[in-house]
Structures are given as structure tokens and as C-alpha cells.
Design brief:
Radius of gyration: 41 Å
Order of helices and strands: HH
Shape: rod-shaped
Number of domains: 2
Structural class: mainly alpha
Distance between the termini: 142 Å
Strand content: under 5%
Length: 96
């Protein structure tokens, strides 16, 4: 035969209620922290992956164009002194 103790029954009910309350508070705190984290990350002004890739492609194209222009300038700099020297050696015209 089992004896019923009202004090233990009430104590168990209180503990079950407290456990439910703590679980609810935990869920509520977790959702509040997630919302705060979303707000914080949203305010950081981050770029999307697509925007990053577009800017990266533009930078690569600009570097390639820069290298091509450097090569063109170097070629013109080698031609310019030769043309200058050739113009100095030109014989005077017949009218002089």
C-alpha cells in the first residue's frame, strides 16, 4: 500500500510549473537575442556576394586596362626619342 503525501504532491507541482516557466523564459530570451542579432547585422551595411563579385570583376578589368596602357606608354616613349633624333638630323630644304 502506498501512502499519499500532499506536501510532496504540491512540491512536485510547483517544480513542474517552475520548469515550464523557465523553459518559456529560455525560448523568449533566445528569440529576443536572435532578433537583436538580426538588427545588429542588418545595420552593418554589408554587401551581398553578387555586389562583391561585380566590383571584383570591375577591378580586374581596370587592372588589365592599366597594364595595357602602361605597355602602350612604354612603346610610345621608345618611339618618341627616335622620332626626335630623326627630325634633328633632317637635311635643310632646297630653299635655304
Amino acid at each position: 500500500m502506498q501512502s499519499q503525501n500532499k506536501l510532496f504532491d504540491d512540491f512536485v507541482k510547483v517544480l513542474n510549473g517552475a520548469a515550464g516557466t523557465v523553459a518559456g523564459m529560455t525560448r523568449e530570451a533566445q528569440s529576443a537575442m536572435q532578433e537583436r542579432a538580426r538588427e545588429w547585422v542588418g545595420g552593418l551595411d554589408m554587401v551581398s556576394r553578387e555586389e562583391f563579385e561585380a566590383v571584383k570583376a570591375m577591378a580586374i578589368a581596370a587592372r588589365e586596362e592599366n597594364e595595357a596602357l602602361k605597355a602602350r606608354i612604354a612603346a610610345l616613349e621608345t618611339v618618341a626619342p627616335a622620332e626626335k633624333a630623326a627630325s634633328k638630323r633632317k637635311p635643310p630644304g632646297k630653299g635655304a
